[in-house]
Design a protein that fits this description.
alpha+beta, elongated, RNA-binding
Length: 496
RNA sequence: GAGCCAUUAGCUCAGUCGGUAGAGCACCGGACUUUUAAUCCGGGUGUCCCGCGUUCGAGUCGCGGAUGGCUCACCA
């Protein structure tokens, strides 16, 4: 490699015709003493500002910058569309204004180039607000052709792998991510206004706790020890309640070493919050309020449309114990059964159940098959079995069940919350049960966390906790059927 | 991890019964000083995802593989 940036044009045989032509134009610009990869440009207006304030700006000079997205040449006059982060504005080039030499430079211009333009704001004969270009600078030459203007980029594989191209040519994509940013901002403000302190806890865990999931492992070289990427921040956040924080939340990435689907990505964003001296009912209230508040801020209504279906987020949402929901949709009452009786009922219903499935597993299966598909409008499913809720407090009137809830919207589980178990003795027993599960081969069962028990032994106030799936919330509010549509760079296998 | 489907030009897509590769946009050359999916004239730019096989002959049929999508399983 030499010092000249032009030298890789020598690999021409590897470039197709379209790219070769652009490299040639690049070289021509260099030869003319023009830097095709310009410099800082101080704009005076954005595209949208010029459109919005045309009445006062007409006939005024302006400096704008952005990417050229289409061109219409007419001999000695030409039109182009310049797009910036706010929108599109038409450029008008005339040989009379630019001079022969300046106008000839247009031949070196390609769709996709980033320009800085100085010109005058006016309206064309056909009524379009435009900028008549007096001078233009190449701020960045584009060396690759963009997808075509009508259909954009459709190939989802390419859209996700080359999100930068997707963002350039499919305008709706950026809107989704702008909305995502707004939702997170709204949520932060909402929690902050209610006295929740945002904290950051470790992502590298010695014990992967706080959820039932397989973790990713990594290695710390200096300490020569394996670490886990966090599957949940829960156990750290509750240590903070022990330490005297009253209301805390953490918003960030979680990592779970599990399958990928339209609703699952190996790394995803969750917001967990904890309220000392509260319980599950407080957490249900705040869940409803958050969804309703975000909807109001975003669309000015608590009714939204997802995939053509109206969803009414207006609080309060119905609460429905899991066993009642199963009874309602399957006609089977699973209340108070032992493992054997539960398996028997599952078999009678033709459900596929592991031979040594527990009561809790059977409940889960019944729920997934008979209940979940019906949960379109928001509803809290409550009172999960203790075996699958090792960090939740038992219900006072039924120690087999916990004071837990999961809100469902459009059949998705969008959050998970409960009254926190603050009894260290019970917690230790629960961990031991989980370890027994683990030894039976359930590698998603919780690990023992001795230090967490120790923290509880110092006394943790009664508390409500909640984990909000942020990606699913964004999917709902952006009408996106796949999680990949709300992740800028969803996980993809590398191309071989 | 399993099943079904897809993969052809830079992009969006056709391609019949197995007979030697097509369109639109983009691009290149020409005309055109208010167009806007500009228009008009001329030009096809290709590892038909990869490999093996069947065949006189494979984009097309068979087998294997890669990547993606959907469904299922696990979860938020």
């Amino acid at each position: 490699m030499n010092e000249q940036p032009m030298d890789n044009t020598e690999n021409r045989e590897e470039l197709n015709e379209l790219m070769r032509v652009r490299r040639d134009k690049l070289k021509d610009l260099f030869d003319l003493g023009i830097d095709p990869f310009g410099e800082k440009f101080e704009r005076t207006h954005t595209a949208q500002e010029i459109i919005d304030r045309f009445d006062e700006l007409e006939e005024q000079d302006t400096k704008i910058c952005g990417r050229i997205m289409s061109m219409r040449t007419h001999g000695k006059a030409s039109f182009a569309d310049l797009v910036d982060h706010t929108g599109r504005i038409q450029l008008y080039f005339r040989v009379n204004t630019l001079g022969e030499e300046g106008y000839a430079l247009l031949q070196k211009l390609d769709i996709g180039d980033i320009l800085g333009v100085t010109g005058k704001i006016f309206r064309t004969r056909r009524g379009e607000i435009s900028v008549e270009v007096q001078d233009f600078k190449f701020l960045s030459k584009s060396l690759r052709p963009l997808p075509e203007k009508w259909h954009g980029l459709k190939d989802v594989d390419l859209r996700y792998r080359q999100r930068y191209v997707d963002l350039i040519v499919n305008p709706g994509v950026r809107e989704v991510f702008e909305t995502r940013s707004r939702i997170i901002q709204i949520l932060r403000n909402f929690l902050s206004e209610r006295g929740y302190i945002e904290v950051e806890t470790p992502m590298l865990h010695v014990i992967a706790g706080g959820a039932s999931a397989r973790p990713f492992t990594t290695h710390h070289n200096a300490l020569d020890m394996d670490l886990y990427l966090r599957i949940a921040p829960e156990l750290y956040l509750k240590r903070l309640l022990v330490g005297g924080f009253d209301r805390v939340f953490e918003l960030g990435k979680m990592f779970r070493n599990e399958g990928i689907s339209t609703k699952h990505n190996p790394e995803f964003t969750m917001c967990e919050l904890y309220m000392a001296y509260g319980d599950a009912s407080d957490m249900m209230k705040i869940t409803e309020e958050i969804y309703a508040h975000v909807a109001m801020e975003l669309v000015g209504s608590t009714k939204i449309v997802f995939q053509g279906q109206e969803i009414d987020l207006t609080p309060p949402w119905p609460r429905k114990p899991m066993l009642e929901a199963i009874k309602e949709y399957s006609g089977v009452d699973l209340t108070g059964l032992n493992d054997e009786q539960a398996r028997q009922l599952a078999k009678e219903k033709g459900l596929e159940i592991e031979p040594n499935a527990t009561y809790a597993h059977v409940l889960d299966e019944f729920f997934d098959v008979y209940v979940e598909p019906h949960l379109i409008q928001p509803v809290f499913i409550t009172d999960h079995p203790v075996e699958v809720s090792p960090l939740a407090k038992r219900k006072k009137d039924n120690p087999r069940l916990t004071d837990r809830f999961e809100p469902f919207i459009v059949t998705w589980e969008v959050a998970n919350g409960f009254t926190e178990l603050n009894d260290p003795v019970d917690q230790e027993q629960r961990f031991r049960q989980q370890m027994a599960q683990r030894e039976k081969g359930d590698d998603e069962a919780h690990m023992m966390d001795e230090d967490y028990i120790r923290a509880l032994e110092h006394g943790m106030p009664p508390a409500g906790g909640l984990g909000l799936g942020i990606d699913r919330m964004v999917m709902l509010f952006t009408d996106s059927p796949s999680i990949r549509d709300v992740l800028l760079f969803p996980h993809m296998r590398p191309r071989s």
